[in-house]
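Supplementary Note 2. Why include the ligand at all?

Several targets in our set were suspected to adopt different conformations when bound, so apo predictions alone were not considered sufficient. For every target with a known small-molecule partner we therefore ran a joint prediction. The input for zinc ion is given below.
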Amino acid sequence: MGGTRDTGRPEGEAAADTPYECGVCWAVYDPALGDPYAQVPPGTPFAALPAHWTCPNCDAPKARFMALLA
Ligand SMILES: [Zn+2]
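The joint prediction is reproduced in token form.
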């Protein structure tokens, strides 16, 4: 995970490896893991998920997810 972030990015902009959390059920999409249920390979950034991808836990659309910028 690493404690420091690249300061070259604008504040609030998610990196390719930024996990996203479902705003409905709090399930987390981790790009390092992908989504085996949706056949998304590990290493896929949230932004690269297909438009029809939904939360594997509650079927919420991508728009309900929020970046976890810890
Ligand atoms: Zn969900």
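The beta strands are 20-22, 28-29, 65-67. The chain has no helices and three strands. Comparable summaries for the other entries are listed in the accompanying table.
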